[in-house]
Amino acid sequence: MEKEYLSIKEQIELFKKRGMIFKDEEEAAKKITFINYYKIKEASLPFFRNNKYLENTTFENIIFRFYEDRNLRLYFMRIIEKIEISLKTNFSRILGREYGEVGYLNFKQWTDNDEYCKHYIKYKQKDFNIRKIKNLHCSENRLLKEYGNNINKIPVWLIVDTLTFGEILELYKLMKMDYKKEIAQNHNISVSIFISWLENINLIRNLSAHNSNVLDVDFKTKPKILDEWKNKLYINESLKLTGRIANTILIMEHLTVAINDKFPGNAIKKCLLRLYNKDINIVKQIGFRNLDKIKELKI
User: Which helix (H) or strand (E) holds 108?
Assistant: First the structure.
């Protein structure tokens, strides 16, 4: 079914028809000029029931929520960068220490042969080599230029700079268990939990990088959580923890503190408190048990 084109004024009228309140339509029109109608609609979904907006839902509050969601994504990206750099640094240090600067090219010697068959390892090495060429072509790292076409001479601690978060995560999973344990222990966590966390962070990174709503995300695959977090997270009517963003925030907090216990954070906490001041329901919507648990955050 094709959607009919709507002018900015008609978009405002459609929102109003569904019960949204506008305090300043002229200012709202300016916002809609630069913010896609569907982005605004996406931010408003928690207040939309049975094709109508809840009573007292204002355009201005929805725009505020949209901007704070954007801020949260930016804060996430800042923390994810720290985690990504840490993972890459640990990965390259171990392989460099054990096999030299280009030993990473021989997957067979550093991968977990008990976990993965030789055919899978050969496939992953071939895939890595294809991606490596593509990544090197796109990389802006000036240190790579001195190697010219000698791509097999590039040391491991430099090649990791060209990898995406998802790519370094896949390589981490391939490592021998002793190496995985060393890296996980450096982040004060077990291997299985660390992998679960990294997979969750990779998902939220992709959402954040593509400007997708993160306040209302509900992960189908929930990351593993620590026992001490159970009193921090909201339990739904089925007595189950939700797949909301609170899980990811606690994961980021743990890893950030493990990497730098003097991290001058609180940006995420301040963002959530600003949202709470506009809508007290935000606490359970994002998966925290109560406001105090947000106030306790260190990031």
Answer: helix 107-110
